[in-house]
Each structure stands twice: as C-alpha cells, then as structure tokens.
Amino acid sequence: MNDTHVVAVCGSLRDASFTRIALDRALSAAEEFGASTDHVDLRGLDLPVFDPDERDAGDADELRRRVDAADSLILGSPVYHGSYSSALKNALDYCGFDEFEHTTVGLLAVSGGAFPVTTLDHLRSVCRALNAWVVPHQAAIPGSRSQFDGTEFLDASIEKRVETLGRRVVEYAHIEPDPRTVESIENVGGDD
C-alpha cells in the first residue's frame, strides 16, 4: 500500500444509487492501485442547509475532517436539471480552501438520459474556484438505468472508465500544485 488516501463523496441520497455503485467501483480501483479509501455517503451525515453563520452545524466538522484527510477526492453526482445535486452542493458549501486547495479531484456524473457534460463542467468550475487540481480524465455514465444489473456494470467500457478514474486520482495525488487559478483568487466566499 502507498501513502495515498482517496475519499469519495456521493452526491446521491437515493437508496438504490447508481452514483454510489460507480463510486464504490472507482474506490476499489484506487485500492487495487495501493491507496486507502473512504466513501463519504451524505445519507449518513446530518448537514442542514448551509448557513455561513452556522458553519459547524450538524456533522459539518466530520465532513470537513474526512475531506481534509484526502490526498485525492472523487466527487460523484447524479444529474439534476443539468447540474449536480443539491446534496453535493450543500456538502461542498461546508468545505473551502482548507479542504480543497492543492488537492487532486476526480469527477464522476451519472445521468438517466444523455451524456452529463454540464454536470461535470459545473463540478470542475467549483473545484477550480477552490484551487483544487482536477484530473483531465472524468467518468460519465449516461442512460444509467440500462448500464447496471444490480451492482454490476453491463458496459465494460464504462466500467473501465470508472476504474481509470480511481487509478488516476492515485497516480496524480501528489502532483506539484499549480499557481492559484483566477477563479480561486476571485472566490471571496470560499475563504470566509
């Protein structure tokens, strides 16, 4: 085992979540590549709607501690109205530069319909605003209802893409940080 710790944050609250299944596969690939892992399932955390005056509400400290422990993160979300889920947005609002700056992030999006490109773009923008380093490889699962049989992938090429994401976040976990992005410099709210 190497010294890389990968944390996945699941933005789906559904019990039968394809996002959760895919994140578990990405984490398994990270473990096969030698990393330790942690799957943050937002269903198990008490995170009230974010209020900047109540930054420590509910399980916010636990969320920040687990995210901060990561050398690399994988953010996974279902597509809701062309973007990522409110559960993931709320969790990300509890975090900031302390948890994300100079952290490698992989992105995964699951769509019931077409390719979830805007969801991935929106997550990439948030990560850049927090000065994280987002791996170029991303995993998308369109038409999710026809992509799984229980917890098994039906399309080997999509499964391989998810596994590659798990490996890439390990490979690039300790990449030399880039200078701050313009987005992060302008992100006043991220440093409150």
UniProtKB/TrEMBL annotation:
Keywords: Oxidoreductase. SUPFAM superfamilies: Flavoproteins. It comes from the Archaea. Residues 5-142 form the NADPH-dependent FMN reductase-like domain. Its cofactor is [4Fe-4S] cluster. InterPro entries: Flavoprotein-like_sf, FMN_Rdtase-like_dom, NAD(P)H-dep_reductase. Its EC number is 1.-.-.-. GO terms for molecular function: oxidoreductase activity. Transmembrane segments: none annotated. Gene3D superfamilies: 3.40.50.360. Belongs to the SsuE family. Isf subfamily. This is NADPH-dependent FMN reductase. It comes from Halomarina halobia.
